[in-house]
Amino acid sequence: MPFRIVEIQQGILRKNDALASGLRERFAVAGTYVINLLSSPGAGKTTLLEETLRQARPRLRCAALVGDQATDNDAVRLARSGAPVRQITTGPECRLDASMIERALDGWLPDDVDLLCVENVGNLICPAEYDLGEDLRVALFSVTEGEDKPLKYPLAFNTSHLALITKTDLAQAVAFDRPSALQNVQAVHPGIPIIELSARTGAGFDSWMNFLESRVSVKRAGKRGRSIA
Amino acid sequence: MRRFLDNAIESYSWNRAVNCVRLYSGRFLDYKRCPSVHEVSIAASIAEGVCEEASKQGVDHVDAVHVRIGAMAGVVKDSLSFAWDVVVADTLLAGSRLQIEEIPLTVYCPACETERTPTSPAILVCPVCQAPTPRILSGREMQVVGMEVSVAVPHR
Questions:
Q1: Window from A49-53, B20-24, B60-64 with minimum mean pLDDT
Q2: What is the DSSP letter of A226?
Q3: Residue B153, number of CB atoms within 10 A of its CB
Q4: What percent of chain B is predicted at pLDDT more than 70?
Q5: Which of A75, A118, A134, B45 has the greatest number of C-beta atoms within 10 Å?
Q6: Structural fold of domain B2-104+140-148
Q7: Considering only CB atoms, which chain A residues are within 8 Å of B42?
Q8: What pLDDT, on the 0 to 100 scale, is given for residue B1?
Q9: Domains of chain A by residue range
């Protein structure tokens, strides 16, 4: 049968990308700095955020969004910090996308939030493809997961702006090969900054908080005039 | 005609896609071919865009959909093909072929000042001089290129 080719030429995730651009604009107007945390399950995202919220709270107005396929356990943990926290239950979906963020924000996020922390679903594959309108994408892996984690999930580490190595207090117990871990992160994303820390002992945590707070203040300073309501 | 297309598009939804997979995944004997949720999401995004375009152009049957997927896009070709069949069932794309063009990963080597192909998407170094190569030239693509449609035949 005769056929013709109809050219389309569009990004597969263009809808998500368009929504993410809208979110980015909204966060720019509000002066809200947004971080998107990516890791495999159990790397320590929630513990990192608990400690981050605890330390940042006196100085910064913080909020958190937490994605999980089921349960609101992480939201309950984070809410103890006193910051507004909202759980996004994704059901069968293995990642957050921009439409989920948009729905979650409506009528919830206060206008004056300085730092919005988004904890993605524990997964290093799917979340890497979805822009959430964040300023900073952070890929983390713990010393207990093995030094080659970045090599196994290159896209997550390549699309991130910062890599965190967590649970460094356990490094000795698991014979963590630090030089090779650092080398592997640099292999998948040459030049990416890396911070090593332990939320439990506090080692390295200052570097993370300084990194974050300097960026939050830059964003806040550049806050655009509120658009006419 | 218009109504037929609108219905076809409405009949398609995320939930539908996911439910299809839930239903089917229990029945796969060859479990390795069972699509992962990730590829289902991607397939659904492709289908959504193509259904809209087909509707705009007044097309009621699509033979094939052409996409470009980069080597570093994190999409498994076989899983995507399989997810496609499940996702497009009961839409105007039912029975269509998903033609996937794989785009190799290429990077710019600042030391050699030329384009190179790394040995692995996980090791962004120049295969010749071993310099780090942060700039990716191709390999991240996730693009719908077009659709093949039969030339219109008279409608009953």
A1: B20-24
A2: P
A3: 9
A4: 74
A5: A118
A6: hypothetical protein PF0899 fold (3.30.2320)
A7: 12, 129
A8: 46
A9: 14-220
Judge contact between B28 and B85, C-beta under 8 A: no
**pLDDT the model gives residue A91:** 86
Does B149 contact A6 at a Cβ distance shorter than 8 Å? Answer: yes
Residue that is written with structure tokens 């569009």 in the block: A10
**Of A2-6, A144-148, A178-182, A215-219, the least confident:** A2-6
State whether B53 and A6 contact (CB < 8 Å).
Answer: yes
pLDDT of residue A93: 84
Tell me what pLDDT residue A225 has: 55
For A14-220, CATH number?
3.40.50.300
Q: Is the pLDDT of residue A203 over 70?
A: yes
Neighbours of B96 (CB within 10 A): 22
| A158 to B147: CB separation less than 8 angstroms, yes or no | no
CA–CA gap between residue A56 and residue A59 (Å, rounded): 6
Listed in sequence order, the DSSP H helices in chain A are 14-30, 45-56, 73-79, 98-105, 149-152, 154-158, 178-188, 205-221
Nearest to B132 among A9, A125, A186 (CB): A186
Report the DSSP beta bridge partners of residue A33. A115
Residue type, A174: V
- Whether A209 has its CB under 8 Å from any CB of chain B: the answer is no
Region class of A200: left (phi > 0), else alpha (psi between -120 and 50), else beta: alpha
* Å between A79 CA and nearest CA of chain B: 30
Q: Is any Cβ of chain B less than 8 angstroms from the Cβ of A58?
A: no
Q: Which residue has the tokens 């090599």?
A: A151
- What is the ipTM metric for this complex? 0.81
